[in-house]
Amino acid sequence: MSVEILSASIEYLKGVGPKRAELLKKELGIFAYDQLLNYYPFRYIDRTRFYKIRELNPELPLVQIVGRITDKKTIGEKHKKRIVARLSDETGTIELVWFQSLKWVEENVMRGKVYIVFGKPNLFNGTFSISHPELENYPRPAGVTGNLTLQPIYNSTEKLKKHFLDSKGIQKLVGLLIEQHIREVKESLPPYVMEKYKLISKREALLHIHFPGSAQMLQDAQRRLKFEELFFIQLQLLGSKQQRNLKFKGAVFDKVGAKINTFYKDILPFPLTGAQKRVIKEIRLDTHRGIQMNRLVQGDVGSGKTIVALMSMLLANDNGYQACMMAPTEILARQHYQSLVSLLKDDLVKVAVLTGSTTKKQRTLLHEQLEAGEIDILVGTHALIEDKVKFKNLGLVVIDEQHRFGVEQRAKLWRKNSIPPHILVMTATPIPRTLAMTLYGDLDVSVIDELPLGRKPIETKHLFESQRLRMFGFMKEEIKKGRQVYVVYPLIKESEQLDLLYLEAGIEQMRYQFPLPDFQISIVHGKMSNADKQYEMQRFVEGKAQIMVATTVIEVGVNVPNASVMVIEHAERFGLSQLHQLRGRVGRGAEQSFCILMSGNKLTREGKLRLETMVKTNNGFEISEIDLQLRGPGDLSGTQQSGVLELKMADLAKDQAILQEARNMIIEIFEQDPVLSLPQNHLLRVYLERKNQGITFDKIS
Ligand code: ADP
Ligand code: MG
Which GO biological process categories is it annotated with (predicted)? Predict the structure, then answer.
């Protein structure tokens, strides 16, 4: 019964009607009662504080005053017509001014009466005035929606305001809804969960989120709603992980055979770092338990993820399975291919590459070899997951630079084999813990938090345009020592034309500063053909060019150990994680490396903070946390596509503790009740079942 009432069309709420209902749908996406109930205020104004007129100053935001109307008159003609009233308390007098709704003011604002007045005070000719103040009778009547200490402010739109659905109007509707129907709201969390985390009930939470009884009650309401929101996201993530584990068997890699042993003992040119060893061990444990692995490996640029991937693939090969490795771009795929081939030297395993530019003839051959099981490791781009690419026995998929692959694509991979292959996702974009838990909450996470020994930390400097010659001088010195230099320009979609101009001007300048034949410059940007890019990259990789001028196409993965200087032009225009990615292109060899951030003299506060952060730290996890604080989760690279992050209440930058609690709770629940069969978890089971049929939570709240 109750479910039906709350899903009733908003049209039937008293005071709404067809016209306003239409607007609420169009403007705010509110169709039903429960959606209005879940339309939360975006901020609150403290209504406990009353100002005396003597206390006013022009810097104050919105203020609240109690006073008596001592005078009221209409002045001016036609469109200059306005009503000016005087309002006095025992400390002084201010003016109230209306330019609109004059008839209403005429009839309703009474001389001699005491009001609570609310608005922004402006100082004009020595007198304070408030235009279009909100007026309330004094004293305020008691009741649910009266006696407010914190006044809710709702987002509204121009169109809604025209139909009297400004913040106040929306508040009125919500008030009505709550008075009439709050009892229909069902509890959505199991009682034992609420008890454990001291959460107030759903009803109380909704009441106090809209009409806070006090600051404390508002806080309790927010905590409850945030917890609930994060709890159900975690339920879904860990629920699907749980289902996968119950459903899929997963290939068993129980042999450590000749391939991996030979590689480790005879070929690997350096000892593994402790972190690399630990992660490989985690992968080994995962892959011989008979469940399907879904693991995310996070590691800063240069932390040596490729070796971890390779050794995992060799493990698959040793157990009679094929492996593949997917990269987001053609350049990266080819580079991975080359580094694997050179690492593997003497034909230990057969490696092949497949990208968009593989010819049809090569493709046909490749497909045959794959299906015959003659290829052990296939490296490539998205082309790998096309349905026509069939493996004989695919056991492991490595996805490099994962953030460009969506959940859908991962799912597509699972179907590539009768037993779904193990999946290893590598990301060089360290993301904050809260984001990892939310975006990749259904994956297990490994962290490579250690750089190979002997790596010298990159030195980062921020130079202004006026110091450009110093930068050129420094580049020359480094090139004289035999090193190579990257110079990177932004290329952002919206301003592509302008960016290209910058890039071209930059290239001119470089050619002038670094003339032929002593200096070779290779140029790579997104507007070039793949073949040209390839050619130019190769010149740099082989050391034939000392300088590479590029746009952000080189952002991910490119590995030239001899390159020791990264110059980033217009550095203030890049996001933190992107700057960090770019910087990671250097510092890969034995030499001291440098990163020079060039910027104009005028910086925004945020731009300045970004550059300062880069100068201060090399730690990707630290940088990602600052990035999250600065930009919020929605803007972090790689998170845009994710609906998971459209949170109503919780804020991943601030609510780490609540998220951790919610996740811990779900983990505990699944440990005790793997298929949610206990009566106390019935609610959760129903939630997941509905969710899997595409029914959203709003509808069952
Ligand atoms: P990323 O994590 O950015 O993918 P790579 O796997 O490309 O890093 O490794 C960066 C460089 O460090 C490569 O040249 C690689 O050969 C080297 N490397 C990886 N692991 C080690 C190690 N344990 N000791 C020394 N060098 C290593
Ligand atoms: Mg890499």
Answer: DNA recombination; DNA repair
Residues 472 and 602 in one domain: yes
**Cβ partners under 8 Å of residue 542, min gap 6:** none
Same domain, residue pair 53 and 117? yes
CA dihedral of 167, 168, 170, 175, whole degrees rounded to 10: 140
**Over the stretch 352-362, which tens digit does the pLDDT of each residue have?**
999 988 999 99
What is the pTM for the complete model shown? 0.72
Nearest to 81 by CA among 106, 64, 98: 98
CA 119 to CA 130: how far, in whole Å?
A: 6
For residues 509 and 558, membership in a common domain is answered with: yes
By most ligand atoms within 8 Å of CB, the mutation choice from 301, 306, 618 for ligand 1 is 306
Residue to probe by mutation, ligand 1, list 273, 336, 559, 593, most atoms within 8 Å of CB: 559
Q: Does residue 698 surpass a pLDDT of 50?
A: no
Three-class secondary structure of residue 65 per DSSP: strand
Nearest bound ligand to the CA of residue 451: 1
Would you say the CB of residue 563 lies under 6 angstroms from ligand 1?
no
Q: Is the CB of 272 under 6 A from ligand 1?
A: yes
- Say whether both 613 and 665 belong to one domain: no
Q: Are residues 208 and 297 in the same domain?
A: no
Residue range of the domain that includes 666: 187-247+656-701
* Residue 276 Cα: closest atom of ligand 1: 23
Q: Can you give the pLDDT at residue 433? A: 80
pLDDT of residue 171: 93
- The number of domains in the chain is 4
CB 620 near ligand 1, within 6 Å: no
For ligand 1, atom 19, name the residue with the nearest CA: 304
Measured from the CB, is residue 588 less than 6 Å from ligand 1? Answer: yes
- Is ligand 1 within 6 A of the CB of residue 335? no
Q: How many CB atoms lie within 10 A of CB 597?
A: 25
Looking at residue 138, what DSSP letter applies? S
Residue 625 lies in a domain: no
Q: How confident is the model at residue 162 (pLDDT cuts 50, 70, 90)?
A: confident
User: How confident is the prediction for the chain on average, in pLDDT?
Assistant: 87
Question: From the CA of 519, how far away is ligand 1's center (Å)?
Answer: 29
- For residue 584, the ligand closest to its alpha carbon is 1
Encode pLDDT of 376-398 as tens digits.
999 998 888 787 889 999 999 99
Q: How many CB atoms neighbour CB 386 within 10 A?
A: 11
- Give the range with max mean pLDDT: 62-66, 92-96, 335-339: 92-96
